[in-house]
What does this fold into?
Amino acid sequence: MSDTDLTPLMRQYREIKRGYRDAILFFRVGDFYEMFYEDAEEASRLLSIALTSRDKASANPVPLCGVPYHAATSYIAKLLKAGRTVAICDQVEDPKLAKGLVRREVVRLYTPGTLIDTELLSPAEPNFLAAVATSSRRSAQAAASPAFGLAALDLSTGEFWTMEFHGDRAATILIDELSRLEPKELLYPEEPSPGGAPWVGRLKGLRLCARSPACFDLLEARRVLQQQFGVSSLDGFGCASLTLGIQAAGAALRYLRETQPSSRLEHIRRLQVRRIGQDMHLDCATVQNLELVRPMIGGERRGEMTLLAVLDRTVTAMGSRLMRDWILKPLLSCDAINARLDAVAELKDAFQARAAIRTALRNVQDIGRLGSRLSLGVAGPRELLALKQSIAALPELRRHLSRLSAPLVRDLVRAWDDAGDLHDLIDRAIHPGAPAAWRDGGIFKDGVHPQVDELRKASKEGKNWIAGLEAQERQRTGIDSLKVRYNQVFGYYIEVTKANLSRVPDSYIRKQTLVNAERFTTPELKELEERVIGAESKVKALEQELFERLRAQVARETPRLQAIAAALALIDVLAALAETAALNRYVRPTVDEGETIRIVEGRHPVVERLEIDGGFVPNDTLLDLESNRLLILTGPNMAGKSTYLRQVALIVLMAQMGSFVPATEAKIGVVDRIFTRVGASDNLAGGQSTFMVEMIETANILNSATPRSLILLDEIGRGTSTYDGLSIAWAVAEYIHDRRHLGARTLFATHYHEMTQLANQREGVRNYRVDVQERDGDVLFLRKIVAGGADRSYGLHVAKLAGLPSPVIDRAREVLAQLEQPTATVCGESTELHARSEAEPLPRPHPLIEEVRQMDLFSMTPLDALNRLADLQRRIEQQAN
Ligand code: ADP
Ligand code: MG
It folds into this structure.
């Protein structure tokens, strides 16, 4: 169909839709957003709303569906969830004043990474848009050394940072960073080559948005960023040495401008440069395994508990977001950690001050996001009232805080801003009962704007007169059932039933005829009506204009609001950590640059909160870079090995984020990274339990860890047959232990008790086991970690506990007894191995162990290593057959 066959409205639609092919276009017509053609078909399906058509009578009816404009947000939310973007096309001139067709424009594009709507955001989580810039793959230098720039921008708070990754491991570190960031949307340059960007394939569950490489242009990026911040160079932000970081930041900002064409984004005022090594590196497996902010999917779950859930006793949304940030970015600098700990310690002891501070904070709304909404011009009158209410808490908070002496708090107090001027500005103007929407009128207090007062008076007088009219006319006409009413379409009218029509005075003018009644007006009523309605619409328009002016005035103070929001978030987190420390009986850890991690009666912060028969059993830990470097932990299934490993990691992480820890004493020599690897069959999460994944993650640890790292290996080498599993576990343990390779502090839980023999060969290895008591063939779990290795796995006991029928257990016992005969062999290797105590000399290593060693697995790239291992596995399977 050619455009000339279309109605003017549909021509306008098509014109606008051309610019937004990938989005569903919400086209404002009257009180509705209408969708046409394919958009209508798709939206009606996704939203379960009726599909009809426009111009039904014509030869070319247009598929159509619509939603009321005031309820649009919930529909938009559904479409976003379904993976779509939504373009909002509004009428940008008053239909009453328009000559001909009303002008329409797209005013906003809704995408998951660019939301500012309170209803669509979760208060306790940031809402990041991320952009990744890559070095051009064509250049030879890029091929040798991959590099990335990553920028993150939260439109809802104005937070904006960028960083760069260089070197062989750049892609992996980028992926780790993204897994912590959890951006709601990720922009990346579309690759012209058919293979695309290989790293993109490694991103699971992220909303990806390929953009033309031109969007990442360096010069243009510099230009838009400089323009945004009103500077002539970005060096002041510490960007001097960056290129990819700037490209990524530029791409993010440009995308934001496209999605918010009607806003100047004034609340985005600076770009922070983050550097690798500023905070503790946590890889994506570790963030998941330690269940820092999200519970593991699948697996055995008792309550959806995370570290965040245990620690987060903040009372504001800003505090909640900062708490999450602290958990995901533990610090490395002892000074910074101790500054936080000093403040937490003081607040923990100052019970009354803490309670008063937390009470005052409860009156504080999300100033961080309010400031952005003001600046973006979307905040309504009630949000200004919320801001006023929040500001009102500031002087009191300052009073409580100024009694404390921790330097972190003192700094806050020194820079404190009560924002009394903003409070008064809002308080003087806005009526406490103001509506949520600024188009509704009734926003301002009486006596603020004389013109508003006058119009209100006129409308009120008119209404009073009309209210008196009914009684007056009843009396005049003698019609008792006469009514004066109002409706949207006909305005004010006098209604008289048919039976009384004979008594209607001549001055009545007929307006409308119903089945049982007639509706009239009078010249007087008509005049009053015009005055009332005129005054009402004038006062609404005036109030709207005045409100927008006031909002802009407050929005100019957004930088102050952002600073206040940051201060409140900080104090909220410190007080919450103090509260948690007091309630959960945590102690202050000693954090230093030393190499020792010594924990007395440590507890797992999350597991101890769950209902456990007999209560949680605390355990000690000693790790250093000397003779307690690698702890090998054995013990039956279900004994508590995994819990213990995670407990140590969590205590270290908590200490470095500035929290007290669940123990009676803790000394933490700062670690630079925490790595965890959970053996394939132990990790059922997401159906990813393949040996391949396990090996990739193990390779990642061995390639990325440093001697200052803390490594947890939980049952690695389990996803494959016993002997190559053991071989790999053994070789990995040696590599980590040996200073010429890694020499990092490590906890290694394994069901291969053969591993305990490593202690005889290596000076830094210690054996521990989780104690159990055997009674009448049953095991009793004591949950106590004691020195020494387990000599058997108690697998049958656990099978019995699990309820396997007794004939099966009995038969298994027989088979085991046979297997444990010294003559029995498996894969040509004596199973006598299983029965040895650790005092005896090490048996000749399995030939495969030698082979793995000779492979020098870890000097290869992970992929080569995996291929070699897969090959090895094939050969073992052939051998076994
Ligand atoms: P393993 O890794 O040895 O198989 P887990 O660490 O998974 O064992 O622990 C099994 C269960 O034992 C956990 O779900 C927990 O409920 C309980 N548990 C572990 N450690 C303790 C402890 N120190 N005190 C009390 N219960 C514990
Ligand atoms: Mg386990």
Observations:
- The two ends are 69 Å apart (CA to CA).
- The first helix runs from residue 8 to 18.
- The pocket of magnesium ion (ligand 2) is lined by residues 641-642, 682, 714 (CB under 6 Å).
